[in-house]
Predict the 3D structure of the following.
Amino acid sequence: MEQVGRYRLLAEVGRGGMGIVYRATDTELGRTVAVNTLRLSEYATPQEVAGLRERRVREARAAGHLNHLNIVAVHDIGQEGDTAYIVMEFVDGRNLDDMLAESAPLPVDLALRILADAARALDHAHARGIVHRDVKPANRTRRESCSTARHRRDKIPRDGRAVAQAREIFEMRGVRQTLGIPVAGGAGET
């Protein structure tokens, strides 16, 4: 695969349970982006494909409403053939998982900055009814291309796999009932 939509795929930068992320060029705007791809043909039934497609669109739309310094911007969503994709801001940096593997423990001041950036991002999302479902070191990217440490920021991705409306995630996974957390108007509420 060399291109999806108007995005020319340049290099693989990550791989996860739901797909492959590429550094890419937006051929219309000439900017570097990240493209998270998912091959729909890897799912067995048409119902699974339709459900996954619907969920990714819903989640990308929810994520698209977030605008925060510490949250990766979603630019576009689409599908070409059996490949669904989400286009996001490309963060040129290293993920926290790699940083920890290289030099754990991190210096206290750096660890506190990373935690503060994550807390601000999650607070912003939660205030808008959005829950990140996959907070982990591999999903924290520290921008290294800034000239001073003061301007380096950690980013949380908000791709379709990682973001959902809070009420939907509680209802989808039954977490509300399991943990006894009431969600106004939720399924099964008494």
Remarks:
- The radius of gyration is 18 Å.
- The CA atoms of residues 7 and 26 lie 5 Å apart.
- The chain has one domain: 3-179.
